[in-house]
Amino acid sequence: MPDLSRYWQAVCERDASYDGQFVFAVSSTGVYCRPSCPARRPKASNVSFHGSCEAAERAGFRPCKRCSPHGQSPAQQMDQLVTAACRLLLESSPAPTLAQLSERIGVSASHLVRAFKLRTGLTPKAWLAAQRKARFETLIPAADSVLDAALSAGYSGTRAIYQQPQALSPSQRRQQGRGETLRYTFGQSPLGQVLLVASDKGVCALWLGDSTEALETELHARFAQASLQPDSAGLGSWLQAVLKQIVEPQRAVQLPLDIRGTAFQQQVWRALQSIPCGQTRNYQQLAQKLDSHPRAIARACASNSLALLIPCHRVINAAGGLSGYRWGIERKQALLDREQASKAD
């Protein structure tokens, strides 16, 4: 039996993953739409759900001209456009300019950039740079030199690589992170175990978990080639500041951070840091602020390695409910409850 409450939530969130599973009809307009339709949301009392377009039409409704529930959705059309552009960027040498790319795809440059940002969070140029960087990261451990890896990844030399902001130098990454020393310590909090990891630049990881064993296993897997050194004494004051923030959320800790992520991820994480304690934002609001797509925002939140310090727990879904959280929904709810209580005080 269909879960009508979930269907309605999908409509409110314009969740494209439900396209093809059902359509919704609006009695006040006589129109039926796919769940991801960009039109203004109707009143719930005017909405009915149907398993197919044919069922909606038998009930007397006509298809929406904006979301075209019979054919490809705007989202599917955009996916095809971006996929074709990505293929051209990767297969052409030299890579086409934005003007050349948009002409070959058959859309305006502004429309292409907007589609890329919605689907990837990046412009075509930035997306290609990210692909080259990812390929470079894959090649460099086995490469004879940094230059060899750079040329194989599509760079014209090594200058662009060394100009990129990064935690490790290219030569360090060629050695799979050997030479980097990370200190770590554990602490017990009301949310379970806390693991704090620091480089010589600042905190690079702050994780929550059920046991020190599980967190330590993840630590060694994540930083397999780094030199890992327990340092409860040296990191004690930082850890205590974090534990105090959990108990008293209004006292936000200010620690030096070694933030490791792509340019887009760091852009999202800066936006998260601007959300005041006791408040929340949804993925759609952040996407509009950053001219991106809610899914790209969600992926960046899921990649955050600095719990509390980059407060991804303050991001909720459009319906006001909790969505995924890397360290568990229960911890997310507990953090938000504590912040609300602290705000009330």
Automatic annotation (TrEMBL):
- What cofactor does this one take? Zn(2+)
Q: Which BP terms does GO give this entry?
A: DNA repair; methylation; positive regulation of metabolic process
Q: Which UniProt keywords apply?
A: Activator, DNA damage, DNA repair, DNA-binding, Metal-binding, Methyltransferase, Transcription, Transcription regulation, Transferase, Zinc
One short Pfam family name for this protein? Ada_Zn_binding
Q: Where is the HTH araC/xylS-type domain?
A: 79-176
Active-site residues from the entry: C33 (nucleophile), C312 (nucleophile)
Q: Name one GO molecular function term.
A: DNA-binding transcription factor activity
Q: Which reaction does it catalyse?
A: a 4-O-methyl-thymidine in DNA + L-cysteinyl-[protein] = a thymidine in DNA + S-methyl-L-cysteinyl-[protein]; a 6-O-methyl-2'-deoxyguanosine in DNA + L-cysteinyl-[protein] = S-methyl-L-cysteinyl-[protein] + a 2'-deoxyguanosine in DNA
| UniProt cross-references to SUPFAM superfamilies, sorted A to Z | Ada DNA repair protein, N-terminal domain (N-Ada 10) (SSF57884), Homeodomain-like (SSF46689), Methylated DNA-protein cysteine methyltransferase domain (SSF53155), Methylated DNA-protein cysteine methyltransferase, C-terminal domain (SSF46767)
| Endpoints of the signal sequence | none
Enumerate the transmembrane spans. Answer: none
Q: Where does Zn(2+) bind?
A: C33, C37, C64, C67
Cofactor binding description: Binds 1 zinc ion per subunit.
InterPro entries named among the record's database cross-references: Ada-like_dom_sf, Ada_DNA_repair_Zn-bd, Bifunct_regulatory_prot_Ada, Homeodomain-like_sf, HTH_AraC, HTH_AraC-typ_CS, MethylDNA_cys_MeTrfase_AS, MethylDNA_cys_MeTrfase_DNA-bd
Protein name (Swiss-Prot/TrEMBL): Bifunctional transcriptional activator/DNA repair enzyme Ada
**What is the organism field in this record?**
Pseudomonas marincola
What lineage, starting at the top, does this entry show?
A: Bacteria, Pseudomonadati, Pseudomonadota, Gammaproteobacteria, Pseudomonadales
